[in-house]
Amino acid sequence: MERVIILDFGSQYSQLIARRVREIGVYSEVLPYGTPVAELMAKAPQGIILSGGPYSVYQKDAPHPDESLFELDTPMLGICYGMQLLAHAQGGRVEKGAVREYGPATLQVKDGTNPLFQDLPKEMRVWMSHGDRVAKLPKGWTSVAHSDGAPYAAMVAKDGRRVGIQFHPEVVHTPHGADILRNFLTRFCGCRCDWSMGVFVRQATQEIKETVGDDRVILGLSGGVDSSVTAALIDHAIGRQLTAILVDNGLLRMNEVQMVRKMFGSHFEFKLVVERAADRFLDRLKGVTSPERKRKLIGHEFIKVFSESAKRVGPAKFLAQGTIYPDVIESIPVGGNPAATIKSHHNVGGLPKNLKFKLLEPLRTLFKDEVRKVGEELGLPHEMVHRQPFPGPGLAVRVLGEVTRSRLKILRQADAIVIDEMRKADLYYKVWQSFAVLVPVKTVGVMGDGRTYENLIALRVVESVDAMTADWVRLPPEVLARISNRIINEVRGVNRVCYDISSKPPATIEWE
Ligand code: XMP
Asked: Which has the least CB within 10 A, 65, 227, 327, 450?
């Protein structure tokens, strides 16, 4: 399989580069900049891309790769800081630009015959974001393009194995960025670019079969995208050897269990076990109002219920999990200490490490949009693979204050109306999340001749790309009106609806 490695020097765009390369049809992986060359070469990459980063090559603590990287024959593309590293390592000179160049720039291609710019215009819009720039080319390199702020905006080694570009081809603000990356992949690395989600499914199926053999696999199914696609993929490989356990903790959305049953109805072979455990969870949550305490209790109870259920299912060698690439990828903190690698967070639904299973994580190399494509490839419905994220502790973090059956019922009904109206307005799949929150205050209202003293529902609708930051959506007033009218008219116990107009930060997406 063709593979390209992206060495991450702390750029916020490293994952984006990997996604672009995959979209072009070459499997790519992001590795920390200091990865030993022997480890890199064990992966037999067709090419290596050095990412950008917030550093200057002369800075004392600037991240540098394994010394012998530059001795390799493997084709290399340096982007921004990556270009400056290449120049610096090969005897060129890097200097501080008079001004930091940030934003759009016009790239003037000097040498249109160079394979990097084959079939591309002589003048292109590109996105720049740099302080330093290459001031003198290393020996044996030629300049192939310039911009106002960068005399050497693109440089190529005469042996045709090394390319450096000052601009960012991975961002949408560089309209021909994907073409430039494709030229690097095909004309410098010799890639065929034939990787696709169909190929992934075939390979993953084969691998799962070989790994699992005749053994059995269990999986915690949440109804979310990642665990559902994991189930579908493993089912595709080993069918009946898989048992999926869905824990109904009483904190799920309306009709969630039926929806999951229906989704995995007739086309799938695996066994679905539904643990009806609402009483256990709600008993534990009695009188609890602290958000952190709620999460902990729910997490503990989940482990108990799941472990007991797994025991009843019978011996299994493997525990499957819907871990995806952003959960495992190591990144270096921008502006922080580059030596400290962070984030080995696992999307595990809180399962303990000491369960005696081998882990099976067939999606751990995929980005979220790729996971969705795999789901569709395996026949999961579009509505399912494009669902909005839903927190593990469920509606408990949206029922502020004590979580009781009656308060859950109010929230569940309000939530169903929000989902329904967002779908009808064709907005459900266009926003990151849209949901209701039950706020623990009562307010006065009028109904007919009488006054009411009832609950307040807050509506939260946000847009986001990765949940790290988010903004509230400027919903059309008529959609707000419909949601509000329906909640107040149809949900008994609610007489007021408010719209949350806070961004993250400083607010969070969830209220708890
Ligand atoms: P916040 O509220 O931190 O949420 O802005 C960011 C994203 O994470 C989801 N979220 C959770 N997911 N368990 C989860 O599995 C949790 O305890 C949890 N809390 C928040 C939230 O829905 C949003 O997408």
From this structure: 450
Please name the amino acid found at residue 385: V
389 lines ligand 1 (CB under 6 A): yes
Whether this model's pTM surpasses 0.85:
yes
Residue 178 structure tokens: 């994907």
To the nearest 10°, report the CA torsion of 384, 389, 392, 394: -90
CB of 313 closer than 8 Å to CB of 244: no
DSSP string covering 463-489, please?
E-SSSSSBEE----HHHHHHHHHHHHH
What helix, strand, coil percent values describe the chain, rounded to 5? 35, 25, 40
Helix or strand or coil: residue 461? strand
The reported pLDDT for the residue numbered 93 is 96
Chain length of the chain: 512
At residue 152, the 3 state secondary structure works out as coil
pLDDT of residue 405: 97
Residue ranges in the chain modelled with pLDDT below 70: 330-355
DSSP 295: H
**Quick check: 30 and 329 in contact, CB under 8 A?**
yes
Q: What's residue 356's pLDDT?
A: 83
Q: Is 80 a catalytic residue?
A: yes
Residue 251, CB half-sphere, CA atoms under 13 Å: how many? Answer: 29
Would you state the pLDDT for residue 100?
Answer: 81
Q: Name the residue among 68, 54, 76, 55 with its Cα closest to residue 5.
A: 76
Q: Helices 368-377 and 197-212 meet at what angle, rounded to 10?
A: 80
Instruction: State the pLDDT at residue 335.
Output: 45
- Does residue 371's CB lie within 6 angstroms of at least one atom of ligand 1? no
Atom of ligand 1 nearest to the CA of 433: 24
Which of 2, 88, 101, 170 is labelled catalytic?
170
Q: Select 397-499's CATH number: 3.90.550.10, 3.30.300.10, 3.40.30.10, 3.40.50.12160.
A: 3.30.300.10
For domain 197-385, the CATH architecture is 3-Layer(aba) Sandwich (3.40)
